C-alpha cells in the first residue's frame, strides 16, 4: 500500500450521488463489505477501518437516474492488501450470485461490477511492483482473462468477513470528452505522470511510478458532455497531497491554466476539463 500514503499523491475518497440511500448503503455493506461510519436520512459515509472514509454517498433532492454517454465516473477501484482477500471476495460474490467481470492486467488482478445506480466498481489486488514490466516510462498492462483456478487454489483460505481494515481506494477511472486537454490538466496542472497509453482513447496517470492512480478515456465519445447536476453518479473525488506547499504549487499552476479553483470549508476544489470535481486535500 506504499503507493497510497504520503508522500505519494493518491485518490483517498470517492463521493457519489445515488437515487436511494437505503438501497445503496445495503449494497455497499452487505455486498462489498464496507461499514457505515456516519449516516443521516439522505447520506452515509463508508469505511473499512472504522475511522477513514473511503466512499461517501448522498441522495440529493431531485436526483435522476445516471445519465449515459456523458463524462464522469467509469469506475472507482477498491484495493485489497492481499491476494487471499481477493479470493475470499470471489467466493463471497459466487455465494450471493453477484454477476461480475474479471481481468488480469499483469500489474494486478481485478473484478468488475456496478452498484444499483450503475456506478462502476473495481475490486483488485496488486502484484508486487518487482513483477511489473516497464518499457522506459510506460508500464506494461493488458486485459487478459483472470485465472480463477490459480487464484482460488493458490491463495491462503480466508473466510469473507467484509473488507480488511487496510483496504484503500486504489484508483479512479473517468470518462472525458477531450483526452489531450485532460492529460494536460493532470500532468501540467496536478503534476502527475502518464505511465501508460491505450491507443488514442485512454491514458493512465500516476504519482510515484504506480501503474495508475487515475485513468481517463473517451469511450463515451469525443466531446461527450458533462452529466446533468441532478444525475446520479460521481459528485467528486479526493486527492490526498503530500503537504500544504504542494497544494499551493498545484493551485498556482491550475490558476495559470485558467482551471477553476474554489475554497470551501473542506479545503480547495477544482474541476478537470470534463467537469469532474476534485477535492485537493492535505
Automatic annotation (TrEMBL):
Comp. bias intervals (Polar residues): 271-282
Protein species of origin: Planococcus lenghuensis
InterPro entries linked: Glyas_Bleomycin-R_OHBP_Dase (IPR029068), Glyas_Fos-R_dOase_dom (IPR004360), VOC_core (IPR037523)
Superkingdom assignment: Bacteria
Ranges for domain VOC: 10-126, 168-282
Name this protein carries in UniProt: Glyoxalase
Region: Disordered, residue numbers: 262-282
Amino acid at each position: 500500500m506504499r503507493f497510497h500514503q504520503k508522500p505519494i499523491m493518491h485518490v483517498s475518497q470517492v463521493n457519489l450521488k445515488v437515487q436511494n440511500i437505503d438501497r445503496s448503503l445495503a449494497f455497499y455493506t452487505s455486498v462489498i463489505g464496507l461499514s457505515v461510519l456516519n449516516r443521516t436520512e439522505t447520506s452515509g459515509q463508508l469505511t473499512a477501518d472504522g475511522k477513514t472514509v473511503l466512499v461517501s454517498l448522498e441522495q440529493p433532492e431531485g436526483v435522476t437516474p445516471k445519465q449515459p454517454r456523458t463524462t464522469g465516473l467509469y469506475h472507482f477501484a477498491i484495493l485489497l492488501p492481499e491476494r487471499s482477500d481477493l479470493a475470499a471476495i470471489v467466493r463471497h460474490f459466487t455465494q450471493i450470485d453477484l454477476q461480475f467481470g474479471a481481468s488480469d492486467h499483469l500489474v494486478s488482478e481485478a473484478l468488475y461490477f456496478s452498484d444499483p445506480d450503475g456506478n462502476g466498481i473495481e475490486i483488485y489486488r496488486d502484484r508486487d511492483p518487482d513483477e511489473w514490466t516497464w518499457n522506459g516510462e510506460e508500464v506494461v498492462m493488458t486485459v487478459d482473462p483472470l485465472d480463477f483456478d490459480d487464484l482460488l487454489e493458490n491463495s491462503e483460505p480466508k473466510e469473507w468477513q467484509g473488507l480488511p481494515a487496510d483496504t484503500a481506494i486504489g484508483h479512479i477511472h473517468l470518462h472525458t470528452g477531450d483526452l489531450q486537454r485532460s492529460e494536460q490538466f493532470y500532468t501540467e496542472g496536478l503534476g502527475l505522470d502518464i505511465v501508460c497509453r491505450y491507443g488514442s482513447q485512454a491514458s493512465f496517470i500516476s504519482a510515484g511510478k504506480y501503474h495508475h492512480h487515475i485513468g481517463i478515456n473517451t469511450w463515451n465519445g469525443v466531446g461527450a458532455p458533462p452529466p446533468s447536476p441532478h444525475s446520479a453518479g460521481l459528485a467528486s473525488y479526493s486527492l490526498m497531497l503530500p503537504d500544504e506547499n504542494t497544494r499551493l504549487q498545484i493551485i498556482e499552476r491550475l490558476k495559470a491554466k485558467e482551471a477553476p479553483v474554489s475554497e470551501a470549508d473542506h479545503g480547495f476544489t477544482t474541476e478537470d476539463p470534463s467537469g469532474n470535481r476534485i477535492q485537493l486535500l492535505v
